[in-house]
Amino acid sequence: MQVEKTPMDSLPDRFDPWPPGAQPVVPTPGYPGTFTHSPAEAPIRRPVGRGQLTGPLDLDRKLPCGEMNLAMAEPGRPAIGQLIHIAGRILDEDGRPVRGAIVELWQANAAGRYFHPNDAMRDAPLDPNFIGNGRVRTDEEGGFGFFTVKPGAYPVPTKDVWWRPPHVHFSVIGPSSLSRLVTQMFFPGDPLNPFDHIFMAVPDEAARARLLATALPPAEVGAGWLGFRHDIVLRGRAATPPC
């Protein structure tokens, strides 16, 4: 006897949250580090539990916030480079603000060097007044902001040398484990963007555009700083790609 299928039986057993090409290709060709840091097998699918939906809680108590001014960590000691302000909102898949999210930023200095032991072998100088990392908590509208300097480009030490364009790393921890995102922000119109293996690892052009900041009119920002806006969407089909 043939059993008639119900509407529930006809539903797929999985749902792809992103359209094709919206996620970066990993391992990334031309970037050896992604071959050693990328899983070789597909992730194991399992039901979402309460821990993934409701926690962790009170992150701002465990991760102290308030480090929003990277450009002048101490009064009278500004960092070297073009001063910029980056502001935006953290949004969920429905465009609603994510309140109380922890937003971390880290970047190279204006010479393209990180304040980190792993970047100690390069000739680019360190800036004693620039550490290059900060952490803030989003407000009721999901807003965040950082004062910093525009990072410099730097070469990637591979057989076929290529350069990373100016970029800023973001880590966002939302109200649940499912809203965790590590991504990068790129600057619009930079000539190195099309040659960057990380940026171009996102095949879909519209998805790549979500990695680009929007330059603000100087008259809107005021003297002393260049302004950029960058909203980050944590999940859904319009999500900011991880990278």
Automatic annotation (TrEMBL):
Segments of this protein annotated with the region Disordered: 1-58
Keyword rRNA-binding: no
Stretches with biased composition (Pro residues): 17-30
Pfam families: Dioxygenase_C
The keyword Oxidoreductase appears for this protein: yes
Cleavable signal peptide: none
Protein keywords: Dioxygenase, Oxidoreductase
Bilayer-spanning residue ranges: none
InterPro entries found in the cross-reference section: Intradiol_dOase_C, Intradiol_dOase_core, Intradiol_RC_Dioxygenase
Domain Intradiol ring-cleavage dioxygenases: start-end pairs: 86-114
Stated family: Belongs to the intradiol ring-cleavage dioxygenase family.
Protein name in UniProt: Protocatechuate 3,4-dioxygenase subunit beta
